[in-house]
Design brief:
Shape: globular
Strand content: 5-15%
Number of strands: 19
Organism: Glycocaulis albus
Number of domains: 3
Protein name: FmtA-like protein
Largest sheet: 7 strands, antiparallel
Radius of gyration: 27 Å
InterPro entries: AmpC-like, Beta-lactam-related, Beta-lactam/transpept-like
Strand order of the largest sheet: 3-2-1-11-10-9-8
Pfam family, one: Beta-lactamase
Keywords: Membrane, Signal, Transmembrane, Transmembrane helix
Amino acid sequence: MKYAMRGALAALLSSLGLAAAGAQVPDVDPREDEQVELPELPGQEAVPAATSGVIDPADLETWLDGFMPYALAQGDIAGAIITVVADGEILLSRGYGYADVETGALIDPETTLFRPGSISKLITWTAVMQLVEDGLIDLDADINTYLDFEVTGVERPITMRHLLTHTPGWGEQVRALIMEDPERLQPLDEYVRNNIPAAVYPAGEVPAYSNYGTALAGHIVAEVSGQSFDDYVDEHIFAPLGMEYSSMRQPLPEHLQGLMSSGYMRGSDGEGRDFEIVTPAPAGSMSASGHDMGRFMIAHLNSGEGLLSPETAEQMHTTADRKLPAVNAMLLGFYEQNRNGHRIIGHGGDTTLFHSNLHLYLDHGVGLYISMNSSGRGGAPGRIRQALFEGFTDRYFPPESQEERPTLDTAEEHGRMLVGNYVISRRAHQNFVAATALLGQPSVSMNEDHEISLSILTDAAGTPLRFREVEPFVWQQVNGAERLSARINEDGEVEMFSAAFFAPFMMFTPVEWWRNGALLMPLAGFAAAALLLTVLFWPVRAIVRWRFGKPFALSGRQAMAYRLSNVGALLPLLHAGGWLFLMTYMMSELNRLDGRLDGALMFMQFMAVLPFLALLVAVWNVFVVWTGAASWFAKLWSLVLLASTLVMIWFVAAAGFFNFGLTY
């Protein structure tokens, strides 16, 4: 199926440095392109749930034992926990592999803590809905009602409903997202005051996953309740459910520290990394055992029992913010993961080291949770999670019928409307991180059968999945379950589109022409090559003259223009290269985003003068060459240098390298 789909998106988003507390984001080592071959899940034939609604635990255990150990070994993952609940009970909770490779400590499903990443958001959203139920928060009131500082949207106020559905309209914020030094952790109230993202979309219009939005909601929980966020969660969520081995606190309380699983980049590393500190804590700071996550799933499957009234739980599970037809929608905190015609909601979560998924089969009273303690190799955590979800669903909740729908006659016309380059709505817009939206733009193409493909949706072999139109602007995967859907504006242009997998929290929107990588990247490549050749041939020509005893033919103003034009050609390369090196270095380790490199950022921002100095030199060189007795080649090359300098300025502007400030 589409096991590589998430790995491909992960590789793209990995360049954004969004692993911590993100929605389905990087579980792949960005330094590697290899893909891991997973074993086929045994017994793919459907095994419907028993008449009582309880899956046979013996069958489930056998099925998992045939898949998980080998999958973890192939993916170089140290350990995993899987918990399945059904009919209000924990049906299976089992550890695979090691909690600590060095000591050989195994995983205890009752007491070993894993980090579920952004699944923590479900704790925060449950707390919000408790206060909504108590009448202390209005989902549709301006959130500034609950704050002693102001956050703004574009055109309209931001509400708690917008935060719950990831539609406040903010750009991505990655500064201090995750770190290892607890001494650098900002208190929650300071973080939300000092890191307000730029508003780029009208509130309520475009889904764009926001860790900051959940952190702000957690702060509002504290403001409204009169308790710290951690105290509120301990008292109102963990205690009522008996979740004794769970905490949102960072570092962990002393009595839980010895129960925490180590986290690894690769299981074979042998030595665990430090406990990760998630600065927007309500968005991803949770540590919990498998049993405790089972208790949380049971509460929501039992109409909120112990946490929410049945009416509030139903509101949370069913209120859909559906931006596109025929694909999954964002609910109030949860998002749809429907498959085989069954109603499924849940959430994914990733830190740098831990990778998790939670699924609730609402109509069957069944919950599935998996968490892994290593990033592994070749995108293995994402592929294992997706394979587990698809295999579990297909085995125990198969489709009642499979209808083959014909391809519409409008397939060619509508497909051509989608062809082109796009940007992801969840992205930075106004700083150096925006370069990732230029360097990794997804694209839509169409084949001769009028089937479309999205470049980042691929099969296990890396081949893009194919989709055919089965409803107006709705495309079904050929021989698969994934869907694409698009929204068209009044002018007949694509406004946004997404896949069922991404649609709840992320859209693809057409890229502006001046940021279109299909145009700009080839031009920037030619420009950089021309400038580099100029720089390289300067010493080469000098060596040749020296070797053959040839005098330097230029003098006066023309000699000065020649020398300065060579120096000027170097300046844009130094500026762009410096930014690309710094950005790559910062993104390769998320804890480098904690402010320690602010000095380097300020230096590179000051270096913005370099390409403009180069432009002045290039303009003067054109004037000198064209008003003097230069050769036709010198005149032509002076224009090439001027054009190349302008293109490099265009490139760094589109990449966000001319933006100042330390909010990113």
